Amino acid sequence: MEGGDAWTMKSIVDKVKADLANDGNVKVAAVDADGILRGKIISKDKFLSVIEDGFGFCGVLYSWDMHDTAYALNSTISAADEGYRDLQAKVDLEAFYRIPWENNIPFFLLKIHDPETNEAMPQCPRGLLAQICDQFEAQLNGTPMAGSELEFYHYRETAESLADKNGINLKPLTPGMFGYSIQRPTLNQEYFYDILNTCTSTGIKLEGWHTETGPGVFEAALTYGPAKEVADKTSLFKLICKSIGPRYGILPCFMAKPAQGMPGNSGHMHLSVLDKKTGQNLFARDLADPSPEWPDIAHLSDFGRHFLAGVLDGLPDIMPLLAPTINSYKRLNENFFAPVTVSWGLEHRIASIRLIAPPVCSKKGTRLEIRTPGADVHTHYAMAALLALGLRGIQNKIPLTTPPMGNEDSSKFAKLPKSLQDATDKFAAPGSIARQVLGDKFVDHFAETRYHEIREWNEAVTNWEVTRYIETV
């Protein structure tokens, strides 16, 4: 460690110790392969003893699914035949929050390292995203920036009533469709403002907070910032909603498609890259291109065009990271305002990528909105993959050959995978672009987690099957 870095770390450690002077316990959590925060409370003395070197965290963290069922095949990280060895959890002292609804307990996010090599594990969501962001800084002197938008349903249910009803006939928080209503939030204003105020006190600023179309649907837009921070805060936003909702008898739902015949929940991501030294937006042009191939890109820099081309080139190969569940693909339906093609366009909300640029916004606001993900997206993995594709586009100077989507027939654009099976097969294929930009270790592990999810689905007997076939076949 360089002398300056060592001094900086000492200063951070000293400040954290001072901030914890009046605390007796600390909460820590890592992000698992499904985007769920998994952690525990430890004593302050224990925390201070591991603050610099880390501590052991059971490797089952990346060897089981969202319901704690171990994967059928051995994990590439910590397998059953290895006794689920410990991984090394390192405290990220710069990811320090307090949890207002838990007596303001200090809360730190973790990064998971290989205990034998001391290197960050590529399967760790926070480590993977940090690795890609570091490549932007080292190779392009750029800082990836992001914004996150989440739509999500609310039900007048509890964990107990959900189990009793087996997920059927859930009661929406409010009936009917009423997007952007300034009236509806007053019906549940204690909950509505508790979320808003808790986010503010936790350090998670919301740029927008309103109703969306759909029964009991809200939308939150997290303030634009460095991609690593926005991914963390998106995970924490979900935690806030899921922790506060039950106090009001409300169950927030981030499924991509909770109800047949209703709109799905999107999880749009906004991306750009700033020059690390000047702070200028590297997607913006100083002057409009007088003769662009398409008018849509007149204000998009060459850097931005290569980034966009890279994302388009690899978008089908990373779909399990953008749409990670069986249910994700129920949202990606041509009849429901969700993108199903490899496409882009200036201010185009049916394309997978919406380019936002002057004159719609200021030059510094030039960015890409990735509209493919639903609210069930694993934000860390998705941002890492999208940025890695953009980096590949810039490094290889990939030309932008896909024309913008206009009013013409969308059938001329390549289709995205229509199921988790198809998406995972493409993701895991030898030589896939996902393997090129994210590495075999990560792809092999995450593909196994998705194949596990597919097996669980294939073995399930649903109420749809029973009501359709029980009497007639």
Description:
- With 473 residues, this protein is α+β, with helices and mostly antiparallel strands.
- It has two domains: 9-121, Glutamine synthetase, N-terminal domain (Ubiquitin-like (UB roll), Roll); 138-467, 2-Layer Sandwich (Creatine Kinase, Chain A, domain 2), CATH 3.30.590.10.
- It is built from 14 helices and 13 strands.
- The strands form two sheets. Strands 6, 7, 8, 9, 10, 11, 12 and 13 form an eight-stranded mixed β-sheet that branches.
- A hairpin with a 5-residue loop joins strand 1 (25-31) and strand 2 (37-43).
Query: What string, H for helix and E for strand, traces the elements in order?
Result: HEEHEEEHEHHEEHEEHHHEEEHHHHH
Rg computed from alpha carbons, rounded to a whole number of angstroms:
22 Å
Number of domains: 2
Percent helix, as a range, is 25-40%
Under CATH, the topology of the largest domain can be stated as Creatine Kinase, Chain A, domain 2
Number of helices: 14
What is the CATH first-level class name of the largest domain?
Answer: Alpha Beta
Strand residues, percent: 15-25%
Keywords: ATP-binding, Ligase, Nucleotide-binding
GO biological process, one term: glutamine biosynthetic process
Domain GS catalytic: 125-473
Pfam family, one: Gln-synt_C
